[in-house]
Every structure is written in structure tokens, then in C-alpha cells.
Amino acid sequence: MKNLIFTFLLAGLLSPFIGNGQGCMESDSDEGVAVVGYVQADYDNYFFEEDKNGNTLNKPNSFYFKRARLGVVGSIPYDVSYYVMAEFSPVTQGQPYLLDAFVTYAPFGKYAKFTMGQFKSPVGLELNTPCHALHTIRRSTVVNNLATPFRDMGVMVFGTSDSLFGKKDLFAYNIAFLNGSGLNNWDDNKYKDIAARLVISPWEWLKIGGSYRTGKQDIKRTDQIQTTRTRYGADITFEYKNFMLQGEYLAGVDEGQASSGGGCGGKSSLAADSLTFSKSGFFVQAMYMTPWRVQPVIKFETYDPDKTSYKYLFVEQDFIQTTLTFGINYFLNDWTRIQVNYLYNSEETAKLEFPNDAFMFQVQVKF
Known about the structure:
3 helices; single chain; 16-stranded antiparallel β-barrel
């Protein structure tokens, strides 16, 4: 019955259109189709030697493409727009793949827009910062782990208050129903994730945001069957003239049950005790745009995985890590940017601190 009710509600919501989410780029044209995209050419040098167990990490330095994206955006009379973006960088999956594809219907202007397709999850500040507008080369570790999956298939309603309360965009909101299975994946269960974000801007120089996402998964692992995944967070942006200060906190709770048996093709059984992992972290970053188009950036971040494993710069680890990023952004023009980052890493709960700092260099061109 619940599924039937949800289906009818969904059909009623989407019947006027085929349905936009939040993409990374926008078209300058009000009508017709436009080709958009950007290329990020990178060089990374990892100062890795041995991990906490004395194993040689042997991470080479390399030139590569972090992102090479090409897409089309446009609008159709009346109130319908579309967005399709593909990733051509071979680093992530080894071949091109569909990144975003959605249709948006905006019968109520900025107040309410309806999207259907594959798009970014509305969770978090840094995740919803366009990929070509990130202030550091890589997203924070807490965002890379707790805002996932970054993209999903589903429907979303979003909008702003516009000038309804006598002030421009006093608040903005996003509410989405998602598969929960991530990029280009068919849903693997009957449940749907619910994700939401609210941003309040009482003054032009201040934005305060909150995010939430929850859903059930059928992710089977050797020693765990995860059943519920919940994420919540808060963020703030202070921007005055050429100075910007941002901070974001994200927390997540994964609830599952321990499994026993199942070896040699046998069937596993659930133990009585459930497993709960509480993960959290935050980042704070500050930057200042000088008159010479040079923008120094400093960023402090930390992530507590609650002893679960996660990947940092392609290396598996399970300890609390703090990262201090020193960066310089140089804008040659409105379309070309050079970024230089040095990442100093400190392992708080590892047995020994080991060399795993990194130097990153990126040239970006967007069109």
C-alpha cells in the first residue's frame, strides 16, 4: 500500500513534465542548445614512503586528467530545460560515462522547479559547489566519504524564495527522492533515499545551510550487512568583499548487523547484535582574492571514520586524519585557472605518523 501511495504521489507531481537538478554548469542562452564543458589537467606528487604497518606505498607521481567533461544544456518553450554531461577522463572508470542527465520543469519560476533524471545529491556545501569552482583541487575527506553517493537517479523539487519576503533569496531548498545506489546504477532494493537541503541567507554576506539524507541499502560485505545509512550536516559561508570563510560539518550513522557463517559457499546468518558506526568530520577554509587575480587559500579538515576503512589518495586506511592544505589560485581570465596545493597530513589515531603528504598542480579551462 505504501508503495502504491508513493507511486500515485510521484505521478501527480511529475505529470506536467518529463523532469532538473543541480548541474555543474549553466547555459548563457535562454533558448536553444549550448555546448559546455571544462578540462582539468593535473600533476600530483605523493610524498609516500611506508604506511603504519611498514608496507611500502610506492605511490608514483603522475600527470593525468582529473576531469574532462563535455555536455549540452538548453531550454525548450515553455519552462522546460535539459542538462546532459559526460565524463571523458579515463582515470575514474577507464572509459567515458554518463555523469548527469536530467530534465527540469519550472512552472512557478524560481519558487519551485521539478527535476527528474540523474543529478547531484543535494547534501552538503562543498559537494554542491560546482566542480570547476572548488577552492582547493580535491574535496575534503569527510565530504568524499559522507556525502556519497555524489550522484544518483531520482526526482527533486527545489527553489528559492526569490523576492517574496522583500529580500533576494532569503532561503533556498532542495528535496529529493533517490534510488540510493549511486551513479548509473539500477536500484537494488525497494527502498528510496530521502535527501534534503535548506540554506538561509539573512544578509548578503552570510549563508547558513543544513542537509539530511537517509535510506536503506542492501550492501553485503564479509562481516556486515548494512541496512540503514543516515547523513546530516551544517555549513556556513561568510563572504565580505574579496574575503571568504567557509565551514562545514558532516556526520553519518551506518546501522547493520554482524553476519556469521557463509564460508565456502554456505549461507550466512545474522547475529543478534547490531553494528553501528558513527562517522564525522569537518573542514574550515579561508581565502582572499587580491587585485592581481591571485587567491591564497588555507584549509583545515579532519575526518573520524569510527575505525572503518576508507581510501585517502587511493590508499586504504582506518584512522582519524587531519589535513592542512596550503593553496594558491591564479585566474588568468574568467575561463582559465591555475591551482597549486600542498597537503600536510597528520594521522591522529595511527600507531605511528608516516610520510603521506602530497603536492598537487592543476590547470583548468572551461567553455
